[in-house]
Amino acid sequence: MSNTLTTLARKSVQELTPYQSARRIGGTGDIWLNANEAPDSGHYSLDCSRLNRYPEFQPASVINGYANYAGVKPEQVLTTRGADEAIELLIRTFCEPGEDSILINPPTYGMYAISAETCGVNIVRQDLDANFDPDYDAIKAQLDTVNIVFLCAPNNPTGNLLNTDKLTDLLIAATDKALIVCDEAYIEFCPEASQVLLLQDFDNLVILRTLSKAFALASLRCGFALANETVIGLLSKVIAPYPVPEPVAQIASQALTESGIAVMQARVKQLNGMRSAFIDELNQLQGINKVFPATGNYVLVQFNDGQKVFSLLGEQGIVLRDFNSKVRLENCIRITLGSAAEMNTTLVALKSVLS
How far apart are CA 116 and CA 87, in angstroms? Predict the structure, then answer.
């Protein structure tokens, strides 16, 4: 019976390898540095008096709070179940299954490809250049064949950012041809690199954001799409009828208050300082081939023997993210910035393994 049910599924789903999230991969240990989560969690209050009611479609407190924070109009904001839902919504809204294509720039975040495959949409892969930056000229040459271009900055996992001038040229070239989507999930760790100001001039730009990283609310699954009003209106036709649970709206609203943003910014300052100190220590160790530019709450490191490092640290209860199987990332491990104690323990372990 199970084989029969499998054949009833769409072929693209039958052949799909699901996204290997940190929780899906699992692991054992006391120090979890594999999912780019914040090392702490804030304190929030919850009013349960309306849990019997369906929530607002787009809670005004969340939309207005994020619009004010991001410096855009409320009409330019859609809140989603994590930025992951926004990725899928864009593909479902702007791509015909079996006909249209998206363009991705590997190595990069895996959900762009997974969402396209799930929706039966083709994928054009344009590798990052030798410096792991987008190859803007190569992307422009393919704009007649794709509907959406996904750019991740800071790129997960390499940490690279976007060149605003080259992005501007790409947006001009893509006018009336394709959407350019900039995934800024980690932008709070380098806010000066945000492309949000370009929304004023380009209707084909979409920016994705999340509360999962710097705001330390990964379990909340609250993300945002920032775009012109027409794009937001189209996405609103496709999104589920009640996409924001009431508890999520309450907590997100509190996180987006002046005091909540101040807490986030203090967290970012602390983590960025820890990142610099951690990289300084890494650069003094033997057995490391490269430390990638770090602009988010993680550091990608290429070891001489990444499998050995990953395995031996795992035996010590330190769970990291192995990227060895990804193209051009042989022997690479991504290390999330945890607490000061966790980073110290990890550094001691690395020194022991690499000595």
Answer: 9
Is residue 221 helix, strand or coil? coil
pLDDT tens column, 18-29? 655 555 555 678
Write the burial class of residue 50 (CB in 10 Å: 0-12 exposed, 13-18 middle, 19+ buried). Answer: exposed
Residue by residue, what is the 3-state secondary structure of 242-306? CCCCHHHHHHHHHHCCHHHHHHHHHHHHHHHHHHHHHHHHHCCCCCEEEECCCCCCEEEEEECCH
State the chain's mean pLDDT as an integer: 95
Tokens 């607002």: give the residue. Answer: 56
- Residue-wise pLDDT for 164-178, tens only, equals 999 999 999 999 999
Helix axis angle for 82-94 and 111-118, nearest 10°, is 40
CA separation for the pair 351, 236 (Å, rounded): 51
DSSP for residue 55: P
Neighbours of 68 (CB within 10 A): 16
Give CA 342 to chain center in angstroms.
Answer: 23
Helix (H) / strand (E) containing 179: strand 179-183
Q: State the pTM of this model.
A: 0.94
